[in-house]
Write a structure and sequence with these properties.
Helix content is 38%, strand content 19%. The protein has 382 residues and is α/β, with parallel strands linked by helices. Helix 1 packs across helix 9. The longest helix has 25 residues. The radius of gyration is 20 Å and the shape is globular. The chain starts with a strand and ends in an 18-residue tail after the last helix. The protein binds nicotinamide-adenine-dinucleotide.
Length: 382
């Protein structure tokens, strides 16, 4: 299939592009390097050096014999977006091109405005470009499990049937984001649902949990193909950050009591889920919502797993409980459903001690690049 990977320079985008290219799809990646610019602005470089996107595509071509087309441009720019879709005529569009950081979205008015306009702006343009140039294409949009928040009832996969005064109907499951970033994802879902109803688009919205992991089959071919791996308090996800902290000997920073529970997945499972969804598209006029995670852990549980894996390698690291910079329930009910992706064939990678040891070893070889000043959270919600 002809697959457009939007946000293809990012942590998940580049790994996805290589994976889909490796299994035989024709891939075009697009990015405007906004992620890189913000990392530079916050002076927090990724752990591994990341060559420019064109250079990575060239190296991938050398190793795989497969071509990945690269387009540089801003998807909030309508003329650019329309041209991109018109020229490439995708059959599937993977929409990663958003600013994914909750702390960044809570830093100040300028940051929150950028997240709001960028995330809704890309989604809005992508929907219109599909409608105008390739109305049968399947849009695969990355949402987040954080859209649901932590309700005191089971979390369904996107939809819930409500019985009210003797009548029933099906609605989007109630959502309540814990940051402006999560709120933009909720708004994205509403936007998609609106256009699915009006234009009969085919859309899959993946409610993804926090992703961890570094190596994928394709990135192991050459260090220049590694993902854009962040470990700082603004852009890094929790488990990736803990692994780097362990290697640097910095106590693992658990926010509050660490009893918050979330659904996690390995980057290799993100790749599997995306491939399964690309190859099994939603129907026309369907907004399919899948909860994309594999295992639920509390944050303190993750920290103790990292401590124990590090100990196996002779590294002693402690856990440090910080005042929670976020406004979130620390003790809460959490029982999210996640059956649709396993039904499509997902074979989960579980978080084993071996997985953590592999990650720690890989991070150890880049230990000199760890900058400890970016580990402590500086953005507070209140
Ligand atoms: N990484 C996770 O744990 C996780 C979890 C749940 C959901 N997600 C979602 O998955 C997607 C990808 O996440 P990621 O971790 O790879 O993020 P990332 O920041 O590494 O990648 C996003 C990429 O999109 C690009 N981009 C942003 N705005 C753009 C624009 N206007 N035009 C063109 N390119 C633009 C950025 O430059 C960046 O390269 C995001 O939408 C994120 O919200 C990620």
């Amino acid at each position: 299939m002809r697959v457009l990977v939007l946000g293809g320079d990012g942590y998940l985008g580049w790994a996805t592009a290589m994976h889909l290219s490796a299994v035989g799809h024709d891939v075009c990646v697009c990015d405007n390097f906004l992620g890189r610019k913000l990392h530079q602005q916050f002076d927090c470089e990724p752990l591994f050096p990341v060559p420019q996107l064109e250079e990575r595509a060239r190296i991938w071509g050398e190793y795989s014999g497969r071509h990945i087309e690269v387009k540089i441009g801003d998807l909030t720019n309508w003329a650019f977006t329309l041209r991109l879709f018109n020229d490439f005529q995708p059959e599937a569009v993977i929409h990663y091109a958003e600013l994914p950081s909750a702390p960044f979205s809570m830093a100040d008015q300028e940051c929150s405005a950028l997240v709001l306009h960028n995330n809704l702006g890309t989604t809005h343009n992508i929907v219109h470009a599909v409608h105008e140039t390739c109305p049968h294409a399947h849009i695969i949009k990355l949402g987040t499990m954080g859209e649901y928040g932590t309700p005191n009832i089971d979390i369904e996969e996107g939809w819930i049937e409500v019985a009210h005064k003797g009548r029933t109907d099906k609605f989007l499951y109630p959502r309540q984001g814990g940051s402006l970033y999560h709120t933009t994802k909720i708004m994205d879902t509403d936007l998609l649902w609106f256009y699915v109803r009006i234009w009969k688009l085919r859309v899959t919205d993946l409610m993804q949990g926090p992703v961890y992991g570094i190596a994928t089959k394709e990135s192991q071919l050459n260090p220049a193909l590694m993902p854009h791996f962040s470990y700082d308090a603004v852009f890094g996800t929790v488990l990736n950050r803990f692994v780097v902290q362990a290697v640097a000997g910095i106590p693992l920073t658990v926010y509050g009591r660490g009893t918050q529970r979330r659904g996690f997945l390995n980057i290799n499972d993100t790749l599997q889920c995306i491939r399964l969804v690309v190859e099994n598209p939603a129907a026309e006029g369907e907004l399919r919502i899948c909860n994309q995670f594999v295992e639920v852990f509390s944050i303190v549980d993750l920290a103790s797993r990292v401590v124990s894996a590090a100990r196996t390698l002779g590294i002693d690291v402690e856990v440090s409980f910080l005042d929670n910079p976020r406004a979130e329930a620390e003790t809460h009910y959490y029982n999210p459903t996640h059956t649709k992706l396993p039904e499509l064939g997902l074979q989960p990678h579980l978080l084993t001690e071996e997985t953590l040891i592999e990650m720690i070893k890989l991070v150890q070889s880049f230990r000199d690049r760890i900058d400890s000043k970016h580990i402590l959270p500086k953005v507070r919600w209140q």
